[in-house]
Model the fold of this input.
Amino acid sequence: NAGVMQNPRHLVRRRGQEARLRCSPMKGHSHVYWYRQLPEEGLKFMVYLQKENIIDESGMPKERFSAEFPKEGPSILRIQQVVRGDSAAYFCASSPPLASDTQYFGPGTRLTVL
Amino acid sequence: QKEVEQNSGPLSVPEGAIASLNCTYSDRVSQSFFWYRQYSGKSPELIMSIYSNGDKEDGRFTAQLNKASQYVSLLIRDSQPSDSATYLCAVNRGGNQFYFGTGTSLTVIP
Done:
C-alpha cells in the first residue's frame, strides 16, 4: 500500500509564474489536508478537502492560492503569480474516512521562488 | 498567544537517558493531541495520539495529557541516536484544523 505521494519533490519558479503541486492520498483515504512549513516555523494549516469538495479553506491566503480534489486524480494546490515569500515546504496529508484526525504525511514539495 | 507552544530547544540527552518534551495549548476545548517526529528535510511521522487525561505508552514512548493544565508531554525512554529529530506537538479542537507547534529539536548524544 503506497503512502501519500507528492510531486514534484522540488519545484523552482521565477516570480510571477504559476506553481502546481500534486498530492495523491493513500489508497482508501478520502480526506486531504495541505500545510505550509516555513523555515523555523511550524506547520500551518491551509485547506482541508474531500473528493470534489473544499471543506475548510480558512488557512488559505485569499489571493493567488487555490486547491481542488477532483473525483479522479490527485489533489492540486495551485499558486498563481508566485512571490519570494511563497518559498516553503508544502506538505499534503491524508486520512481515512472514519479516522479523520489520523493524518499521514507525504514527502512534501519544496518550492523555491527565484 | 499561539495555539500550541513548544520549547524550540535544542534539547540534548545522552544515549540511554530519558528525553522529556513538553507542549502547552491555549484552547481548553481541544480534544485530541498528537506527537509527530520530523527528521531534517523529511515529512512529519505520527508517533502517538492521546485523547484522555493520563498516560499512554507505546514501546519506548509515553504521552502524557493534563487537560486541566493544558499540557501534553512526550517521554522517550532509553533514547537512541536515531531518535535525534524535531518533535512536533499538534492539537485538534474537534474541527478540521490541526494546530502544530514549531517543534523541539532533540539530539541524542552517543
